[in-house]
Design goal:
Layout: H1 3-32, H2 37-60, E1 71-74, H3 76-83, E2 89-93, E3 105-110, E4 115-128, H4 134-139, H5 145-156, E5 163-173
Parallel strand pairs: 1-3
Antiparallel strand pairs: 2-5, 3-4, 4-5
Helix pairs in contact: 1-2
Length: 176
């Protein structure tokens, strides 16, 4: 079974169980008024908060991580490769990169300024451009290291002695 299909089935089962709990809560509702209005507001508000939190977790599959701590700009091709999960890495020149630490979330924006996803940075490493391997290039959505170098040269005027940062990322979903 495909991993995405399995995750969808688990999330759907969780939402179904959550709906059963809510329906059981309506049945118990008649007894709940006996504890008093203030207690009803406090306990009911807390339970409602937990239900909304659980539904959000079930639908997104991710715990909320707060506000993004940076942003990365992408061409349309790069953004599409990330959204289609063809690419799992991003290669950028290290010189002007202000990427946040591993474990932080960044906004992924097209060069036009439109946000298309939030990315979790899973790993980061630096290497010389000349040391990029074909595996690094495939992880970034290119066929070979030569194709990646050529794309970088046309976009950033890369030279073989330049240092690049390879960010392994995971798309958390669409823009919020």
């Amino acid at each position: 079974m495909d991993g995405r299909l399995r995750a969808l089935a688990i999330r759907s089962l969780f939402l179904f169980l959550l709906s059963l709990v809510l329906v059981a809560g309506f049945w118990y509702h008649r007894e709940f008024y006996q504890i008093g209005f203030t207690n009803l507001l406090i306990i009911g508000g807390f339970v409602t908060f937990l239900v909304i939190w659980a539904a959000r977790l079930a639908m997104t599959g991710e715990l909320p991580r707060g506000r993004p701590s940076g942003e990365l700009a992408f061409t349309l091709d790069e953004g599409d490769r990330l959204l289609k999960r063809v690419a799992r890495s991003v290669v950028r020149p290290s010189e002007d990169l202000t990427a946040p630490s591993v474990g932080h979330v960044v906004r992924a924006k097209y060069e036009t300024g439109t946000e298309f996803a939030r990315l979790l940075i899973e790993d980061a490493r630096r290497t010389f451009l000349s040391d990029l391997t074909d595996d690094d290039a495939r992880q970034a959505g290119f066929r070979s290291a030569a194709d990646l170098r050529e794309a970088g040269t046309s976009r950033w005027s890369w030279r073989p002695a330049d240092i690049v940062t390879i960010l392994r990322v995971r798309a958390l979903g669409g823009s919020r």
